[in-house]
Amino acid sequence: MRPSGRELSEMRSVSIETGFTKHAEGSALIKVGDTHVLCTATIEDRVPPFIKGSGLGWVTAEYGMLPRATNTRMRREAASGKQGGRTVEIQRLIGRSLRAGVDRVALGERQITVDCDVLQADGGTRCAAITGGWVALRLAVNKLMKAGDVITDPLISPVAAISCGIYAGQPVLDLDYPEDSDAGVDGNFIMTGDKQLIEVQMSAEGATFSRDQMNALMDLAEKGVGELVALQQGATA
């Protein structure tokens, strides 16, 4: 029934390669099917002006897509002199999702920036960026702890994200691009490792959906996030 031949509750193959770049304090290349996202984490001994002197740390994110991440070339946003609305919305989502799993007091007055660059897109780029971004963040925090700059682990819980939707009338897990572009309902679910919700983005794309269908999507999302968290923990062990 699915274009990929997957079962309704079956995710695409997922791999996470850590230490992918040489210079960043934390880095991970996450591949979710044909969606590939490079995530790097940078530690800086500064915070935004609005929390300076508070003793609180900050985690933020930036997101972008390479010109040929998709079927046709996209113009670099830098060439137009501004970021598009979609880019701004996604990087804000990544930032607040990752912050939900951080004890900012334990982090101390420093900032970690997680850069998420989409090398290849086939649906679910924001979810892959959040999942891979947490791995890069975990590795960066590990370095802080090893150096003794942080005494208590500031990462409260893993954070992962997965898409679910109604495709051909059925609830499905982890939409790829052919499904995403034709889904009646499309949603992104961001959760902590203990299945606490951080954010849910749901919209009907031409068809309404019932409470029962929403519950079915939640069940699929919990299953998918559980699998992703296990992969995150394995990659950072």
Overview of this protein structure:
The protein is an alpha+beta fold and 237 residues long. It has one domain: Ribosomal Protein S5, domain 2. It is 32% helix and 29% strand. The protein contains six helices and nine strands; from the N terminus they run E-E-E-E-H-H-H-E-H-E-E-H-E-E-H. The strands form two sheets. The protein has a five-stranded mixed sheet with strand order 1-2-3-5-4. Helix 2 packs across helix 4 and helix 4 runs parallel beside helix 6. It is globular, with a radius of gyration of 18 Å. The N and C termini lie far apart (37 Å). The mean pLDDT is 96.
List keywords for this structure.
single chain, 237 residues, alpha+beta, Ribosomal Protein S5, domain 2, 5-stranded mixed beta sheet, 4-stranded antiparallel beta sheet, 6 helices, globular, rRNA processing, ExoRNase_PH_dom2_sf, nucleotidyltransferase, transferase, RNA-binding
